[in-house]
Amino acid sequence: MLQEWPLPRPSGDSDKEGRGSVLVVGGEVSLPGAVVLAGIAALRAGAGKLQIATCRSIAPLVGVTVPEALAIGLDETRAGNISSTAVRQLRPLVDKADAILIGPGMTGNEDERRFVIDLLAACNDVQAVIDAGALDALADFPSAIHKFNGKAVITPHAGEMARLTETTPDSVTQNPERTASDVSTTLNAVVALKGARTFIASPDGDLFCYEAGDVGLATSGSGDTLAGVIAGLVARGASPLHAALWGVFLHGSAGNRLAKRIGRIGYLARELLDEIPPIMNRV
């Protein structure tokens, strides 16, 4: 199916601008690695430019770890979270980005929820991927994502989806197809509901299932990697549904390659990154 729906390919004479720009926003002082994984994943998926906005005190560390990125230090709270006042620093960057990924390395505390809601309100003419702690803000203000008119992707696991739907993780896992479809319609966004079987639903009624992944993908940082891949594909010009389908496939296939080489469990999320380009180019 994916071979019949190929990703946008840059022309031979295009530069990095032609492959799109990704802005990754997230991270707490205690969780700098999440934005690193997500940012590198976006580049591995083929995005041309990367900007990472995170807490000011860890931005230099992030910049050294990902020398390909522009690292932006944002106002932070005493607790080590991005401050809700930081939105004004991001407005010029959001306007220039082709895709924005919000949430890696966030835990969804009150300051972050206010920040995410204000940031979503500041987004104009940009496609968004919303992950991890940023999803808690949508649980409080689901209408914040409506302005994207279907040009957004959310990537919850069962626990995050339970908060969005005010149910329990067990009720989500008992009927993931219906849950993904209903939330996609309600939020007018593409949903990639992660799990042993991942369900991808669109507001137009499309529903897909990916069940070829393996248990090794259930590891710390794996979700950040998936979100980064989807954001990179969106920046390249893929539609939200197109990017979600390819992203889930690439992420799962990368895990399967590592499972054969290393073992079904024990490989690291950062090891998924190098597997993405060869799989993408082969397919």
Brief descriptors of the model:
283 residues, alpha/beta, UDP-N-acetylmuramoyl-L-alanine:D-glutamate ligase, 9 strands, 44% helix, 14% strand
How is this structure best summarized?
This protein has helices at residues 33-44, 59-65, 87-96, 110-122, 134-140, 158-165, 169-174, 176-187, 222-236, 240-261, 269-273, 276-282; strands spanning 21-25, 49-55, 70-74, 99-102, 127-130, 152-154, 190-193, 198-201, 207-210. It is an alpha/beta fold and 283 residues long.
Could you characterize the architecture of this molecule?
Strand 5, helix 5 (134-140) and strand 6 form a beta-alpha-beta unit. Helix 5 runs parallel beside helix 6 (158-165). This protein is 44% helix and 14% strand. The chain is an alpha/beta fold and 283 residues long. It has one domain (19-282): Ribokinase (UDP-N-acetylmuramoyl-L-alanine:D-glutamate ligase). The chain has twelve helices and nine strands. A nine-stranded mixed sheet has the order 3-2-1-4-5-6-7-8-9, sandwiched between helices. The protein has helices at residues 33-44, 59-65, 87-96, 110-122, 134-140, 158-165, 169-174, 176-187, 222-236, 240-261, 269-273, 276-282, and strands spanning 21-25, 49-55, 70-74, 99-102, 127-130, 152-154, 190-193, 198-201, 207-210.
The overall number of domains is 1
User: Which residues form runs of ≥5 with pLDDT under 50?
Assistant: none
Q: What's the main sheet like?
A: 9 strands, mixed
Radius of gyration: 17 Å
**Any idea of the CATH class?**
Alpha Beta
**H/I helix tally:** 12
Percent strand equals 5-15%
Number of strands: 9
Overall 3D form: globular
Average pLDDT: 95
CATH topology group: UDP-N-acetylmuramoyl-L-alanine:D-glutamate ligase
How much helical structure, as a percent, in the residues? Answer: 40-55%
Please report the distance between the alpha carbons of the first and last residues. 10 Å
Structural class: alpha/beta
The CATH superfamily is known as: Ribokinase
Order of helices and strands: EHEHEHEHEHEHHHEEEHHHH
* CATH architecture label name: 3-Layer(aba) Sandwich
Strand order of the largest sheet: 3-2-1-4-5-6-7-8-9
